[in-house]
Amino acid sequence: MEITEFVETLRLDGGLLADAAEEAGLDATIPACPNWQVRDLLTHVGRVHRWAARTVTQGAQQPTRPDAAPELSDDQLVDWLREGHHELVLALHAAPRDLAAWSFLPAPSPLAFWARRQAHETSVHRVDAQQAAGTSLTPLPAAFAADGIDELLTGLHSLERSQLRTEVPRTLRVRTTNARGAEWTVHLSDATPRTVRTPVPGSGADAGEAAADAAKPADCTIEGPAEELYLALWNRLPWDAMTVTGDPALIDLWRERAGI
Question: What is the reported pTM?
Fold first, then answer.
């Protein structure tokens, strides 16, 4: 996906998140995070958006942490979220393509990283707000959802902080049913998870290892439409819509330990 596509998704979902939060009310519980209310969600997203905008606009070269949220009344919180979201969208639009800035996952460029990461951050939390409000979820394009699965498996769960571990080595295969070439094999052990992406035919990169992985049966295979699979992997939807073959204990492992 192009940087402009990520920024546009971020723009749309940030507005939908704020709208759903207003509809839900700040006391509403976030179903995927029962310890959170909508005010906690808005505080988190508002801090992250400002942190990302600051990193991009200042070209920060070292890791930083989000600033603490200001003391705000409930009447101010949604507007504060909207302001930070707007700052982030403008920062990404205005940033040079050769932006030099710190990032924490491999990406074609720092700008590509921040646009992608914040688009997915915002989309998942937009779902939280809409679920809190009890409204229908706004659909996500299959290509964006498949990209989000890729970021989660090959990116976020490649970090040392991932708790997705098992003493006995196992393999989990994740496959979309409506996004061409979207399949991943996750190697689980007591070390950091290692994910091999099955490439689109003809892409060349890592094709040998990926083909060998894809030819082997996995301990558990999960298949489903990209959007539903994306949200299930983020523990935002139940697994009922997925087709699961093999050992269902790996689904339980995911639910228990795959939180980010």
Answer: 0.94
Phi and psi based region of residue 156 (left: phi greater than 0; alpha: psi -120 to 50; beta: remaining) = alpha
Supply the DSSP symbol for 151: I
Decide: 247 and 217 in contact? Cβ < 8 Å: no
pLDDT digits (tens, 9 = 90+) for 67-113: 999 999 999 999 999 999 999 999 999 999 999 999 999 999 999 99
Count of all residues that appear for the chain in the document: 260
Return the percent helix, strand and coil in the chain, to nearest 5: 50, 15, 35
Domains of the chain with bracketed CATH: 3-133 (1.20.120.450), 142-257 (3.30.1050.10)
pLDDT tens readout for residues 133-181 = 999 999 999 999 999 999 999 999 999 999 999 999 999 999 999 988 7
| Pairing relationship of beta strands 170-176 and 220-224 according to DSSP bridges | parallel
Strands, DSSP E only, in 20-88?
A: 29-30, 33-37
